[in-house]
Design goal:
The chain is mainly β. Helices cover 0% and strands 41% of the residues. A hairpin with a 5-residue loop joins strand 6 and strand 7. It starts with a strand and ends with a strand. It comes from Maribacter litopenaei.
Length: 226
């Protein structure tokens, strides 16, 4: 079952198996904070209004094949931009492997082809074997004109890109398609961030970069100072 909560109504169609959906949604193409994705039941939403959803499951959802810890269950969506499963961030999870539901943070339905249930990567393990490592970066948005923004020279070769930044707990704090130098120490996603208007806390963050037009993936660390 799907429950949605948009600001205005959106239309949706429910599908029960991957075989009836168009396209190729590989359960192996996962963002770095996702451990596994269901291949059993899917939903499709349509709408441009920021929305939240609640997905329920029962014994027929086969979630026991994905995890033995129901608290790691998350809503995931197939991103139209990056062509992989993205964590839609669980705001609440309740129940056990036989019955329960999970609610999402706010997202734009039209950004995703389909939605299903997945399992988060706990503990967060962003260092994958199929990506390259860039240098570590220092960002100090203090207005002195030096390292005020996260700038990666290599992205000049790939305007069609996706940049994501995670804190040390694996919480995604920034996401930008066609990134140039937008990150200046502030979160732009709807996750729970304390004192959002004051900027992110000083510390070490992990970033991932996908150069979509070149088929390259990079990762590394940045240190945020004030």
């Amino acid at each position: 079952m799907l429950i949605y909560s948009p600001s205005v109504p959106i239309s949706f169609r429910i599908r029960d198996t991957q075989s009836v959906l168009p396209g190729n949604f590989s359960i192996d193409d996962l963002d770095v904070d996702i451990a596994a994705v269901s291949n059993w039941e899917f939903w499709r939403l349509e709408g441009s209004v920021p929305s939240t959803i609640s997905l329920s499951w029962n014994g027929e959802s086969n979630l026991a094949n994905l995890t033995d810890d129901p608290t790691t269950i998350i809503p995931v969506g197939w991103s139209k931009i990056s062509q992989r499963w993205i964590n839609l961030e669980a705001s609440m999870v309740t129940g056990d492997l036989e019955q329960g539901f999970v609610s999402s943070e706010t997202f734009i339905p039209d950004d995703y082809e389909i939605i299903t249930l997945g399992v988060s990567q706990i503990p967060f393990q962003p260092l994958a074997k199929d990506v390259l490592t860039l240098d570590n970066f220092f960002v100090s948005p203090n207005g002195d004109g030096i390292n005020d923004r996260f700038y990666v020279e290599e992205l000049e070769q790939s305007p069609n890109n996706m940049v994501r930044i995670y804190d040390r707990f694996g919480l995604k704090v920034f996401e930008q398609a066609n990134y140039v130098d937008e990150f200046a120490g502030f979160s732009n996603v709807d996750n729970f961030v304390i004192s959002r208007e004051d900027g992110l806390p000083v510390g070490v963050y992990f970033y991932t970069i996908e150069m979509l037009d070149l088929g390259l993936k990079y990762q590394g660390f940045l240190y945020l100072a004030r």
